[in-house]
Design brief:
The chain has about 550 residues and is α/β, with parallel strands linked by helices. It folds into 2 domains: about 10-145 and about 385-540, FAD/NAD(P)-binding domain (3-Layer(bba) Sandwich); about 215-380, no CATH class. It has helices spanning about 20-30, 45-50, 70-75, 85-100, 190-200, 225-230, 235-240, 265-275, 280-285, 295-310, 315-320, 340, 390-395, 405, 440-460, 470-485, 515-530; strands at about 10-15, 35, 105, 110-115, 125, 130-140, 165, 180-185, 205-210, 215, 335, 345-350, 360, 365-370, 370-375, 375-380, 395, 425-430, 460-465, 535-540. Strands 1, 2, 3, 4, 5, 6, 17 and 18 form an 8-stranded mixed β-sheet that branches. Strands 7-16-8-9-12 form a 5-stranded parallel β-sheet, with helices on one face. Strands 13-14-15 form a 3-stranded antiparallel β-sheet, with no helix packed on it. Bound molecules: NADP nicotinamide-adenine-dinucleotide phosphate.
Amino acid sequence: MASPQEPDFDVIAIGAGFAGLGLIHSLRDAGLSIRVFDRASDIGGTWTWNRYPGAATDSEGYYYCLTFSKEILDEWSWSERYPGWEETHRYLHFVADKCDLWPHIQLNSEVVSADFQEDSGLWVVTTADGATCTCRYFISAMGMISEPNVPDLKGVDTFKGPCFHSSRWPQEGLDYAGKRVGIIGCGATTVQMLPVMAETAANVTVFQRTPNFVMPAVQKPMTPEWEKEIKDNYEEIIAKCRNHVFGMAFDSPVGRNLADTPPDEVQAILEEHWPRGSFRFVFETFDDLLSNAESNKVVSEFIAGKIRERVNDPELADLLTPKDYPLFAKRPPLDHGYFEAYNRDNVQLVDIKDREPIVAITEKGIRTDADEYEFDIIVLATGFQAYTGAPEAVAIRGRGDVTLKEKWATESASIMGVCVADFPNMFLITGPQAPFANLPTSIEQNILWITDCIKKMESEGYGVCAPLREAEEAWVAETAEIHAQTLMAQGDRVNSWMMGANIENKNPRVLIYFGGANVYYDKLRESVAQGFPELAFERAAN
Ligand code: NAP
């Protein structure tokens, strides 16, 4: 039973990106005091850390945004279809200025631990400088792809030049013009980075383990006509995101399966949609690409054909073509000239899976078992400890003296990705076993649920809400059952971050709810309507 001890803040959250800013707005409106800590020197989260060349959104910018204020939607203008990191970062500053969010944000403050106090029902939050403060509600808003995965490569400290993870691109910038650059990894980050770097670097060498199904982004400038059309229809666009399996403003389902369409029509439809760009290609062509193995194969072969068309050297094209996993078992990147970059004389691909594995990083560069490559700069574009990495990096201790990291050692269990049994009064934004979708849409839906839960507690005089173990077991089981029925289950074989399988010494696990983001958002609203049956509420002592 909680005692009525007064906390320093009603709410403390970690992370001043989209989630942290949205939380401040929503919870302040609900009459709560909130402090958001961030270890970065600026707000922006992903968009302050990921400053690598070419970093841009893969969602179309006009719905990769916060939608709580019509004024902000009307006043902000995006310059292109996929805004670069600088523009997205400026947008988040605009939101913070406009909504006067800054007084609630404490930058350069890394939270190192958070401890639930059984006697008071409060959380004690400690920052790296040793300062502590208390709150009733503690929220992880640290992002689901934010904690780097830095592989344990032999000799990594011996390299003489800059060598860093892609999401730790030097904040002051890095002049790579005329330099020899080595990039380890070829996921969405490298797909964006390579074509831009190749333009001015002396040469760029990509060390590839697994190729990706890369689809065209098709960048376009925002025209006044397009902007007017968007702004005249924002309500409909937001509703589309809310009701879409991937949280995107797409026109799907389309009511057509590839399996039921004659092959020549299939090819015509795929050809028609390919040049339009974006993940729309997957969602606005056929409804069965991610559920029917044969349909998935057909579209995978179509993409392979496009790779062959664009890469001049057939052997190289073959190396760049995925062969042993279905489309979407790894998150497909969007392309801004990735394959064309390999047609340049100054770009090279090294197959480190079958031909020449990396042996070590050396003083001069990267040594494989066949050669030594000399570089001035090495970028580790090796991905992230998705979903769990960031909360696990903070010593978050709930009931029974167990940390979140300990709890998640074998299974990253949660209830709808928003709360975890044995961690009372703690919430996650897009935690494990939430869907993978357009992030601002999911973030806003999570914020609504959290705000409604806290409002209930405040208005009904509860001191503690404890996520129920049975509810967690049910969500884990449902998530696993849905996953098992999808083609994504075949992704167990690949090193997909979507299964946590990209992390050495970590057992793959179901990190994503694959039942559809729209279904998940409905479930969150049902939970609110039913008074949060997943939680046990305990009254505060008078
Ligand atoms: P990623 O997709 O996980 O790719 C990491 C790459 O590093 C893979 O090619 C991986 O090979 C390789 N790798 C990992 N450990 C390695 C090791 N020990 N030795 C050699 N190679 C190794 O990471 P990412 O490109 O940073 O993208 C991660 C996610 O962030 C994306 O899927 C996306 O959701 C998000 N992202 C979004 C955007 C955007 O929306 N604009 C941009 C960038 C990233 P394997 O595949 O064989 O494991």
